Fold each of these.
Amino acid sequence: MKKLFKKIAISLIIIVALYGVGRIGVVAYDSYKFIEREPYMVMQTQNSITIKWQTPKEEIGTIHYSPLSGNLEQNISDNKGTKKHALTISGLHECAKYKYSVDSSSLKIDNEGRSFTTLCENEKTQRVWVIGDSGERGKGQNGVYNQMLNYIDHDLHKLNFWILLGDNAYRSGTQKQFNQNLFEPYKELVKRFVPWAVTGNHDARRWAFYDIWDFPKNGESGGVASGHDEYYAINDGNLHIVMLDNQNINLNKDGDMANWLKKDLQVNTKPWTLVVFHTPPYSDGGHKSDNSSDSGARMENMRENFVPIFDEFGVDLVLSGHSHGYERSKLMVNHLGKSSTFDITKNLVQNHDSCYTKPLKMTPNSGTIYMVAGSSSKLDHATLQHPAMPFSFEKLGSVILEVTPTTLNSKFLTIDGTIADEFTIKKNNTKCENKTNG
Ligand SMILES: [Fe+2]
């Protein structure tokens, strides 16, 4: 009998070990499987941009580019034949728009309408499109995308910046799924904008995300150099945008990411500061921030360890996804506990619905607005009753931010084309005229 148990135990161990090895093999294959990919852009700075693409055959690729008014008279080429192309165009003018086309002998490339813009020192107005959990192609994704296009009269020159809040390619962030769920459906955006994306839990199931993207870890796009692809900052016009990976990185309050964030925010002088990461500190959507065992306690960790930093520097807006709905707070501070500890008298800086005022300079405890916008391709059925997030909708949609040096306006644009939620933060010393709650 004893022998039989021993045999069964050994057999089980062998099966588990084989499964483990097989699983690692599948993950590695999905992560690094070579597939064709048309040109896309990363590493946008004030004077350079990197264009990457993948061709079925090894070849020397060439990019032709010029200012918009030019005739593509400048060229840059690979030094040697490759399938994985990554060319950096440098020496560009700040805040300038260029057009480009890419030559390939083995990949059919659609060069119609390709352009890019370098980052700006100053800008009068900026329009940012924010999508979250957008990585499931189909009707929902298309409908949300089309409403954004309708909003800008199908004129992509009216858009300045594109932010993706994670879970950019369901189901598991494989190379193939990134093509099917991001690069192909958003093709016209990909030709013209850097997809500034944070990683989500589904993206993190494979290792493709950090293979596809290169990030400005040396401070190339602004802010303090982090030395890590997983967290970095971007300065563009009025915006200081901080991108954090809260999936793969230690979320301790004295961890490297938290320490870098403090250093970065300390020297930030831009009028508006956005912080972007996938797993939110507050949600009563498909994921519950009150549940410590939901999402490996990452929601609790963000709340306890990062919200104090957002408070200390008066971060204006925190953008997350993960729950597939829309949830939005008022201007708030110091809410580190579960939803039962939320106290309107202590946690709200301004108990307004749609207009808030803040000092022009980053000021401690001047309040932050938290937003979950994870319904850009799929929807959860959920209670949406978190007391800190009173503006909540079970609705597919995306977010449009319109920013000037002294105002930030945010709209939740639904798949029906309606604006379900809208608010403005003012830093121009004008008062708000709120219709409700003072
Ligand atoms: Fe998701």
Amino acid sequence: MRILNQLAGMLLATMMAASAAQAAPERVRLSGEIIDPWCAITEIMVGRGSAHHQCAIWCAVGGIPVGLIADDGEIYIIMKFETDDSSVANPGLVQVQTNRLVVEGDLYRRDGLNYLAVHKVVDDQGIVMVNHEDVGIQPFGE
Ligand SMILES: [Cu+2]
């Protein structure tokens, strides 16, 4: 019985160590465009750049989670933005929709998804992808 208790204790300690390692975020600096992932992933319209700026604001205010598509092509869902705990209809995030940012924060990888807690916007370059004259304002034209 004593051996079983020792084995159970060792197993629990191993599981706790693995869990703690999984919970630890990675400190990262990422560059990319702030996007509304719904339009960008589904491609129901041109979901990037100045063409999609207005729609991205509507989506963010409406509660669609905001993401950052980084230069590596990965999408990072933003859970926290600087001092604000919420990413839902966050005025700070709405202000930077479609902008190209350089951010620092904590990256959590879970089940193949990337979640980002942005601690600091290092650089806000504004809208860099100018495509509204080529494809029109999404989704209603003009
Ligand atoms: Cu959109």
